[in-house]
Specification:
Blueprint lengths: L2 H4 L2 E2 L5 E5 L2 E5 L4 E5 L4 E6 L2 E6 L4 H22 L2 E8 L4 E5 L2 E5 L6 E4 L4 E6 L3 E6 L2 H14 L9 E4 L15
Antiparallel strand pairs: 1-6, 2-3, 3-4, 5-6, 7-12, 7-13, 8-9, 9-10, 11-12
């Protein structure tokens, strides 16, 4: 039984939700998000609460109920508050610069790397080593952050590279002399 899927989602006051033909549209202060809902589940919108209801009770539908509830809760949170992801650049000479909708990285390669931000994602760079990404769609924000991290993943010996702010890098001991 899905415990997550049974929890109701409260709708904030300034949020407008439209559900027609399996497509939900959530409008809020920060923007608009749309998503197609799987046909195995249905939504009930009453009295400022959204509930995800099963059409038939089988294992796949129950798992989709929890997934749908989580996606809808993220949509409601995103259009009202937005999401933020913070990355850190570690390494001597490693830095990033923001040019309009593009981030230019100098991270130890022979050339600078240009990274174009997707639509709906904005960034700010603090002291050229902390990157803050902002957006209303949690999925696109996470994919963007992981793509930036993949440009130069942190290595375990010196910890150089791009990492999430909350990430801990497990350090390895280097080689020692053989005497």
């Amino acid at each position: 039984m899905s415990r997550v899927g049974k929890k109701p989602i409260p709708i904030p006051e300034k949020t407008n939700i439209t559900y027609t033909d399996g497509k939900i549209t959530v409008k809020g202060e920060k923007g608009v998000l749309e998503k197609i809902i799987h046909p195995s589940v249905c939504l009930e919108i009453k009295d400022g609460i959204i509930r995800v209801v099963l059409k038939k009770d089988d294992k796949k539908s129950r798992s989709l109920q929890g997934l749908t509830r989580s996606l809808l809760a993220n949509m409601v949170t995103g259009v009202n508050n937005g999401f933020e992801r913070v990355l850190e650049i570690n390494g001597i000479g490693y830095r990033a610069e923001l040019n309009e909708n593009r981030i230019v990285f100098n991270i130890g390669y022979s050339h600078p790397i240009n990274f174009d931000l997707p639509i709906g994602i904005s960034a700010s760079i603090d002291k050229s080593n902390t990157i803050k990404l902002f957006g209303i769609d949690k999925e696109i924000l996470g994919l963007t952050a992981s793509a930036i991290r993949r440009l130069r993943a942190p290595e375990p010996y010196k910890g150089k590279g791009i990492k999430y702010a909350e990430e801990k890098i497990r350090r390895k001991a280097g080689k020692t002399g053989t005497k």
